[in-house]
Structures are given as C-alpha cells and as structure tokens.
Specification:
Family: Belongs to the PRAME family. LRRC14 subfamily.
Keywords: Leucine-rich repeat, Repeat
Number of helices: 20
Shape: globular
Helix content: 40-55%
Strand content: 5-15%
Oligomer: single chain
Protein name: Leucine-rich repeat-containing protein 14B
Structural class: alpha/beta
InterPro entries: LRR_dom_sf, LRRC14/PRAME
Strand order of the largest sheet: 1-2-3-4-5-6-7-8-9-10-11-12-13
Organism: Smutsornis africanus (Double-banded courser)
Length: about 525
C-alpha cells in the first residue's frame, strides 16, 4: 500500500531528482528544508545530493533514525533501508563537512547519531546493496583515519581543529576489521569526528583483543554489549571483565554459548558465580539478558536475584534449566515485566506445565515475543499451550520451530492464534507428518530438509487460509528452517566460514599428529 506524501514532500522529490540542479541550488535553500530534502534524497537514492546536504548540514545534530523515521510529510519509516549508496554518501559527506571551509553555512554540528539504522532481511532500495553494521563500523573508522592523515599532510584552516563532533554508532568488531577500528579509537582525541560507541558487538575475536578494545570504546557510554559465537568467554573471564571494567549505563547484555557451565562447580566457581550476579546487580539499567547455550541448572536465582531492575528481555534457551529455575522465574519480580522470553530447548509442557502457565500469566500483560523452539511440544500439549497463551493479548511474535506437531495440531493452534489481536509474526515447524516415519526430535541439520515439500506447501496454504478467513492478513507465518534471520551473522558469514574451516583444519592436523605419535 502506497504511503501518502504531502505536497511539500512531492516538491522535495522533484527538486532532488535533478541532482546537478539540486547541488548547485543548496546554498539558497532555507535551513528548515534540509531534513525534508534529506529524506526525499534517501528515498530516491540520490547519493550526491545526500553527500552535499550532510557536507553543509546547518543544525547542531544529525540524527539519521529521526530524519528517516515517520514524518508529517511522509509517514513511511525509511530507517530500515541500509542502502549502501545512501549511507556511504552520509559518511563521506560528514568527513567533507569537517574539511569544507568554503561552506556558506556556519559549522554548528555537534552530534551525529547513526544508531537508529535498522538492519533487516528484505531491502526495498533500488540498488539492493546494503551496508550493514560491520561495514558501517569499517567505513567510519577508515574515514576518521583518512581525515587525520589529510589534516597532518596539508596546511588546513585552523578552524578545522576546533571542530568536535560526537558520532554515536553501534560498533561491530571481528578479527577482520579489528586493527582498523583500534587505530581509529586510539587516535580519537586528535580527530574532529569522535567515535562514541553506544552498542558493541564482538564476534570471532581472541579474548585478549576483546578485552583491549572493550577498554578503548569507553564503557561508561555503552548501553548494549553483545559477545557472541567465536569469542571464547568463560565464567572466569566474565568475572575478570566485570571486576576490571564498569558499565554504568549498560541496558542489554548478550553472552556467548558456554559462558557458564555449572555441572562441575568448585567452591571457587560458586563464589565466582555469586560475584558475577552481584556485579550485574550493580548495573542498575540492565533490562535485557541473553545467556543461551550455557549450562545453568539450578543457578538462575543466584544470577538474577541480585538484579535491582526487572528484566524486560530474557533468553535462557538451551540452558538446561530445572524445576527450581522455572519456579524462580515464575515467582520472581522479573515475570511481571518480561516483554520478550526465550525458553527454547526445554521440555516445559511435559516437565513444568503449571510453572510455565504461571510464568506466562504473570507476564501476559506485557509479553510481546515468545520463543519455544525445540521444546518437544506435541499434539497432546496443544490445549495446554493454548490455555497458557490465552491471557497474552499483547503477543506480537510467536516462534515454535523444531516441535513434533502434526498438521492437524497446527491447524488447531492457528485457529486460536487468530484471536491474539496484536500478533504479527509466527514461525511454525514443518509438520511431523511431512517427515518420514520414525524421525527423531530434535532433528539434526542433515535431516532437516528431508521432508515432503509438496505436502508441506499444502499444509502451509491451509494455515494461511485459516488466517485469511479470520481477516488476519496482517499475520506473517513462515518456516525458516535454519532459524530466524540474523543481519549480523549474514553480513559476516564469509569470515565465520573461513574461521570454521581454519578450526576444522587445525583439529585435523592435531588428530593426524596424535595418530602419527601413536604409530
């Protein structure tokens, strides 16, 4: 459906559509029209015009998320368009803002905010070429260093050295861009463009490098910290991190798989776990915590009870929780505030049905997203699941991939899901009857695609018909076989693939060496 445009916006589009004319005329354009022209240029992917608008930006702040968000003149939100042409033009325009001393505009810019850009799976820009978070990190770091080299090599206008612009960004650092980002951060005090890291994601990085760069990014400003996949962080390293670095504004924390393993805890480990809980308790802003694929059996209370602020997001998928953990969650003060909950990998409806029911009833007034993947939910559990979900009238996303449900059970469940008024996204499993008889759950990756695709398509059609007949065309139902889209993983999959091949090669070499020694 086309979004209505005001006459002002249509005029702005007409103005920027002739790039040469628009660029020549910018000097005589009223300041209050710059935001309108920026959004129109972004929509039409007029890179050169975007560059010149940013190079001559007349305001104190430049907030990309707000400028591209819904406005009176054009309500469509463009902040999810990570168009490479547009974003590169923004950043090079920012560099040239510093260098351009011939601009007719007084240099007032103090803050640039790039954090409102949203990375999504489907891009609507014409070029179809995206610039993700990793690439934005790379380009900004490169431009900052280029700027410094330029200032050192040329006799520049002394006024340039008085320019100081905070650039708020969500940094994403891996082995492949680590050196560049470190250099940019080390020289931050000399550069007119000051990288200010608000959110930091680290993947495929040695621990020593992770600790070093975490200190460089100024942790006192950090609101979100994601340590994922190939950062080998374990419990003792996490304690070391919390003991050596203070995160006063941290709101969101994601830890890599196997950070915790409480199976063989010594007395020292117990003290360490207590200390980590207490340190997290001092993070008074912390409301989002993801600890998937750790072993936390019987220790959830020890970690979460010191928290002073209730959690709004909790991911404890595949954490081997027991009844005591589930009972704590259901009765804790966090339960009434949970907006997003992931309990994947736990046999909840078989082992803890009443506790699960209690947990959902407590969080029902605010719960927006629920993930129950690989939870062994069977046909016999569907009525219990419906009963548990019934109070969750604010639910917008429900993901339950990897559960052994039949086509009939899915139809029954979908008939109920139509009644949830806010629901927008459902991820459902391939029906059990589409797989060969005797398939065991959880299904391993090798067998995941070996199902009757024709039968699946027929069932998916019936499920969508149920939505259609209930006038719920607004609900998107899908089966992403290998999990939900992750923009960060998608962007760095070449590096992660290379890392996995290297690890596999090293393992084979060690195995061969051991065999040779034995023989």
């Amino acid at each position: 459906r086309a979004t209505m445009k005001s006459l002002r916006f249509i005029s702005a589009e007409a103005f920027v559509s002739n790039a040469e004319f628009a660029r020549k005329s910018l000097g005589s354009v009223a300041h209050n029209l710059f935001p309108l022209l920026f959004k129109a240029s972004y929509l039409l992917e007029q890179g050169e015009v975007i560059h010149d608008l940013v190079e001559n930006w007349p305001f104190v702040d430049f907030n990309v998320g707000k400028l591209l968000g819904s406005t009176v003149d054009y309500q469509e939100d463009l902040s999810h368009r990570t168009c490479s042409v547009c974003l590169e033009s923004c950043l090079t325009g920012l560099r040239d803002y510093v260098l351009n001393h011939h601009s007719p505009f007084v240099k007032r810019l103090k803050v640039v905010d790039l954090t409102g850009i949203k990375d999504v799976e489907v891009q609507f820009c014409e070029c179809k070429k995206t610039m993700g978070r990793w690439a934005r990190t790379q380009l900004l770091s490169k431009l900052c260093l280029e700027l410094l080299v330029y200032l050192q090599e040329r006799c520049c206008n002394p006024g340039i050295f008085e320019i100081s612009i905070d650039v708020l960004i969500d940094l994403f650092v891996t082995e492949w861009n680590y050196e560049l980002v470190v250099q940019a951060l080390l020289k931050k005090c000399y550069c007119p463009l000051k990288i200010c890291c608000v959110a930091f994601r680290s993947d495929n990085l040695a621990l020593q490098k992770f600790f070093y760069i975490t200190k460089l990014i100024d942790p006192s400003l950090l609101r979100k910290l994601e340590i994922v996949h190939n950062v080998r962080l374990e419990m003792e390293h996490l304690e070391m991190l919390f003991n050596s670095i203070h995160f006063p504004l941290l709101m969101s924390l994601t830890l890599p798989a196997r950070t915790f393993n409480v199976q063989r805890l010594t007395a020292t480990d117990e003290r360490m776990l207590t200390n980590i809980g207490e340190k997290m308790g001092k993070m008074t802003q912390l409301t989002e915590l993801s600890m998937s694929f750790s072993i936390l059996t019987g220790r959830i209370q020890k970690l979460l009870s010191p928290l002073k602020t209730p959690l709004k997001l909790l991911d404890v998928s595949n954490c081997s929780l027991n009844h005591a953990d589930m009972a704590y969650l259901a009765n804790s003060f966090h339960a009434n505030h949970l907006e997003a909950l992931d309990l994947s990998g736990h046999n909840i409806l078989d082992l803890y049905p009443s506790t699960f029911f209690k947990l959902l009833s407590h969080s029902s007034s605010v719960l927006r997203s629920l993930t129950l993947e690989d939870c062994n939910i069977q046909d016999t559990h569907v009525n219990m699941l419906i009963l548990s979900l019934s109070p969750c009238q604010k639910l917008q996303e429900f993901r339950f991939l990897g559960n052994p449900l039949s086509s009939q059970a899915l139809k029954h469940l979908f008939t109920f899901l139509c009644e949830l008024p806010m629901l927008k996204n459902v991820e459902f499993p391939v029906p059990r009857d589409c797989y060969p008889t005797g398939i065991t759950y959880p299904i391993d990756d090798a067998c995941l695609c070996r199902f009757d695709h024709q039968k699946y398509e027929s069932v998916a059609e019936e499920l969508n018909l149920i939505l259609l007949q209930a006038n719920r065309e607004d609900v998107k139902a899908s089966t992403p076989l290998f999990g939900s889209y992750d923009a960060a993983v998608q962007e760095t999959n070449n590096e992660l693939g290379a890392y996995l091949i290297k690890s596999f090669k090293e393992t084979l070499e060690k195995f061969t060496t051991s065999l040779n020694k034995m023989s």
